Amino acid sequence: MEHAFQPGQKPSIRSGFRFQWEPAQERHVLLYPEGMVKLTASAGEILKRCDGEHTVAEIVEELKQQFPGVDLEADVYKFLEVADENGWIEVR
Amino acid sequence: MKTAGSKYADMPKPLWLLAELTYACPLQCPYCSNPVDMANYTRELTTEEWFKVLREARELGATQLGFSGGEPLTRPDLEELIAEARRLGYYTNLITSGVGMTEERIKAFKEAGLDHIQVSFQASSQELNDFIAGTDAFQHKLEMARAVKRNGYPMVLCFVLHRHNEDQVEDILELAIALEADYVELATTQYYGWAMHNKEQLLPTREQVERAEAIAHRYQEKMKGKMRIFYVVPDYYEDRPKACMNGWGNVFLTIAPDGAALPCHSARQLPGVELVNVRDHSIEWIWYESPLFNMFRGYDWMKEPCRSCDEKEKDFGGCRCQAWMLTGDPRNADPVCSKSPHHQELLDEVARIEADAMNPDVPEKPLVFRNMRTSKALIGDKPERDTTTA
Predict the structure, then answer these.
(1) Are residues A36 and B64, on separate chains, in Cβ contact within 8 Å?
(2) Cβ contacts of residue B288 below 8 Å, gap of 6+?
(3) How far is CA B173 from its chain centroid?
(4) What is the pLDDT of residue A2?
(5) Which residues in chain B have Cβ-Cβ distances shorter than 8 Å to A87?
(6) Which of A74, B51, B64, B210 is the most buried (most CB within 10 A)?
(7) What is the pLDDT of residues B268-324, one digit of tens each?
(8) Residues 6 or more apart from B138 whose CB is under 8 A from it?
């Protein structure tokens, strides 16, 4: 079982799941067979970048630029771990 | 897309849309949740009318969409409906028996944008499966389940459990593993519609339920991270009711084949219900303003013991249909709850059914299979209850 992500890994939304913006709810959601995860704003910002292209380090870097002065590195790693445990993301 | 107006900003949104496209079905499962008088509602919505439903519900925030029935595959416009739903941004689920499916159609659905397929099985063996389904379906279901996976869909397998297959749970889970299901639903029969009619022949014994539950939990552990197993606890054996539909008019919107909009698929039977039809009204009016959707919304409708109960926000007093069927008043607490004054009656009934089931001297009543002919016979000469007011 994985406990942490490496900076060079490229997470993506797990196949069968769909990540999208819901205008009526004004938030991102993650959709899967017969279910939906309502995401917080920060979870949405992280998952938006889980596209199989960005490395974890790049995700952190982009978010740091978007939210200057916020120490978010640990939070990103922690969220990715939770997302992985819940089966929302995969690393190829 | 417009967002819900400020007028309704604090109200719940219909996040889950269940589109019951038809009551037609090649299977005859005696536990079907469709209404026993389904032969009264055969004037199905047209493709255009469904498009309107999909569009309006999506505008209110509906995100999950289930195409169900009956057997939705009997609708020749299913591909069109899927394509429109996907275009609107729904996560689209097809809930099917697999009968009437072909690999060509599975591919066409994929092209149209279908996200997920749920295939139901009646049992893990051909003999029992085909007996319960009332038709030779097992081999075809196996083929279709394999084709679903081959075409890259996430797959849910659904098994409805009852006295006749409850002891097969281990074989059922092994079958699901062999078919590479992503999710398995072990859904204990809920007693509505045809299932209510067949309750005495379907209710498992407590011993059966306990065995099945233990096996399900063992497999949940064993398959962790590979296959998710949902075990729906049989509520007749519980002492707190289920949070039915997650609250009335709170999350779920069902549209029946004839266009009746319902807070749950069996709400049509409740007394005093003023039915509303999507042919006459907008989904917005139906969801927010109609008397039906406000009937048991929130907590003001409750009687004691629910009204002052500190668990009411957890289970909403249980199921209104069950309260009506078992106590004669839909405002009563669901008698599954041990705080209900009717709870003992339910326990007594369960004990009686259990004793009869285990007593070889009590002849077993035959199952009543679900089909239009039997529906008509059961309706007798009762007049049609058309929901269209125009």
Answers:
(1) yes
(2) B8, B11
(3) 21
(4) 46
(5) 225
(6) B64
(7) 999 999 999 999 999 999 999 999 999 999 999 999 999 999 999 999 999 999 999
(8) B121, B122, B125, B126, B129, B130
Q: Which of B3, B18, B63, B120 has the highest number of chain A CBs within 10 A, making it the mutation to test binding with A?
A: B63
**What is the total residue count of chain A?**
92
CB contact under 8 A, B93 and A22: no
- Tell me whether B151 touches chain A (CB under 8 Å): no
Residue B341 C-alpha, separation from nearest chain A C-alpha, in angstroms:
35
- The edge-to-edge listing of strands for the beta sheet with A35-38 is A18-22, A27-32, A35-38
Q: What is the end-to-end Cα distance of chain B in Å, rounded?
A: 30
The answer to whether the CB of B162 falls within 8 A of the CB of B133 is: no
Sketch the domain layout of chain A as residue ranges.
Answer: 11-85
The DSSP secondary structure of A15-83, one letter per residue, reads: TT-EEEEETTTTEEEEEETTEEEEPPHHHHHHHHT-BSSS-HHHHHHHHHHHSTT---HHHHHHHHHHH
Q: Judge whether residue B386 has pLDDT over 50.
A: no
pLDDT for B140-177, tens place per residue? 999 999 999 999 999 999 999 999 999 999 999 999 99
Listing DSSP states for B244-276 in one string gives GGGSTTTSEEEE-TTSEEESSTTGGGSTT---E
Residue B60 in contact with partner chain A when CB distance is under 8 A: yes
CATH number for the region A11-85 comes to 1.10.10.1150
Q: Which residues of chain A neighbour B64 with C-beta distances below 8 Å?
A: 31, 34-36
Q: What is the DSSP string of B170-199?
A: HHHHHHHHHTT-SEEEEEE---SHHHHHTH
For the record, the structure tokens of B366 come out as: 């035959």
Average pLDDT, integer, range B71-87: 98
SS3 B110: helix
CA dist., res. B351 & res. B349, Å (int): 5
Cα gap B365→B357, rounded to integer Å: 10
Contact between B64 and A35 using a beta-carbon 8 Å cutoff: yes
> B154 vs A22: CB contact, 8 Å cut-off?
no
Q: Which two tokens stand for residue A36?
A: 């939906």
CA-to-CA distance for B77 and B179, rounded, in angstroms? Answer: 28
The pLDDT, as a whole number, for residue B241 is: 95
Residue type present at position B235: D
* Phi and psi torsions of B306, nearest 5°: -70, -45
C-alpha atoms less than 13 angstroms from C-alpha of B122 in its C-beta half-sphere:
27
Does the model's ipTM exceed the 0.95 cut?
Answer: no
The answer to whether the CB atoms of A31 and B66 lie below 8 A apart is no
Closest CA to B96 of B155, B175, B8: B155
Three-state SS for B19? strand
Cα distance between residue B22 and residue B183, in whole Å: 25
